[in-house]
UniProtKB/TrEMBL annotation:
One of its GO terms (cellular component) is plasma membrane. The chain holds residues 606 to 882 of 882 of the full protein. It is found in: Cell membrane. Signal peptide: none annotated. Residues 23-277 form the EAL domain. The keyword Cell membrane applies. This is EAL domain-containing protein.
């Protein structure tokens, strides 16, 4: 009876009610976004040790008719909760693969890799590998130039099952990257069993490397670990020359961050690649 009282109170709490209304509103606007093609991929450059653009990470944006350009922090979590992430994620895969297939036809863009973010829920959904295989075939994208960014949250599930899905993706020729590394759940024991090609150092650590010795030690350990597992390591959130210099000194060879370029619409990204040739 006590719990019931509490629930009733919560139900009539005007703040809770407002939050619930906001969620329902966002959910239906996301539905409209899918229906009316309001999503767009932005591209953020990834550079090698001498600063050449070698690829991009595709980052989702929503051109909302009311609120303008909306970033994923405003809607991905809700989409994961409502399941809309499945359809949104499929749109991202399709749009990213189509773009990469087009790059294959351009001599000056052919070598670029493209990283796509996959939500854990999407990755773990029954039939994900089959769907990917058919999207790949239909798009004509080159899987060797595509990288799927997964977060450690996929490892909260049955690890053996996750390894099998990863192996099937590798069999399709796709490369796998572990995003936001160090913030999640992976034990080092798992890490060597996962068919990964890349670790991304979370920008939280990168930000702290100059004045927080713990962050610096973590970044250094991740670079050493990646090296011994023969994985590429990407530092993300690199904003200043000083951060870049320290990471380079620690052995990192691939970078992403505002220092090298913000996420931008396709045409701007392609122009910056062509400008460096
Ligand atoms: P993420 O995958 O860790 O992506 C990196 C985020 O850091 C991006 O934010 C990027 O714009 C931002 N960033 C890059 N360089 C810098 C820098 O130098 N300084 C700072 N302060 N930030 C930097 P964004 O685009 O807002 O995306 C946020 C998150 O939303 C992503 O984090 C990813 O988890 C998720 N997301 C983005 N696109 C997709 C998508 O297509 N599918 C799914 N499932 N999630 C996505
Ligand atoms: Ca990412
Ligand atoms: Ca990340
Ligand atoms: Ca992140």
């Amino acid at each position: 009876a006590k719990d019931e009282g509490r629930n009733t109170l919560r139900f009539f709490d005007p703040h809770m009610q407002a939050a619930a209304n906001a969620r329902a509103g966002l959910q239906s606007r996301l539905h409209q976004a899918l229906k009316h093609a309001q999503f767009e991929l932005y591209y953020q450059p990834q550079v090698d040790e001498i600063g050449r653009i070698v690829g991009a990470e595709a980052l989702l944006r929503w051109n909302d008719p009311v609120h303008g350009l909306v970033g994923p922090a405003q809607f991905i979590q809700l989409a994961e909760e409502t399941g809309q992430i499945m359809e949104i994620g499929q749109w991202v895969l399709q749009a990213g693969m189509r773009q990469q297939a087009h790059w294959q036809t351009q001599a000056d863009l052919r070598a670029l890799s493209l990283s796509l973010n996959i939500s854990a829920r999407q990755f773990l959904q029954e039939g994900f590998v089959g769907e990917l295989a058919s999207l790949l075939a239909r798009s004509g994208a080159n899987p060797e130039r595509l990288r799927l960014e997964l977060t450690e949250s996929v490892l909260l599930s049955n690890v053996q099952g996750v390894i099998e899905i990863m192996q099937q993706l590798r069999t399709l020729g796709l490369w796998l990257s572990l995003d936001d590394f160090g913030t999640g759940y992976s034990s080092l024991g798992y890490l060597k069993r996962l068919p990964l090609s890349e670790l991304k150092i979370d920008q939280g650590f990168v930000r702290g490397i100059l004045d927080n010795p713990t962050d610096a030690a973590i970044a250094r350990s991740i670079i050493t670990l990646a090296d011994s597992l023969q994985l590429t390591v990407v530092a993300e959130g690199v904003e200043t020359r000083a951060h870049h210099a320290l990471l380079l000194d620690q052995g990192c060879r691939k970078f992403q961050g505002y220092l090298f370029g913000r996420p931008v619409p396709l045409a701007d990204f392609e122009a910056s690649v062509r400008a460096q040739l």
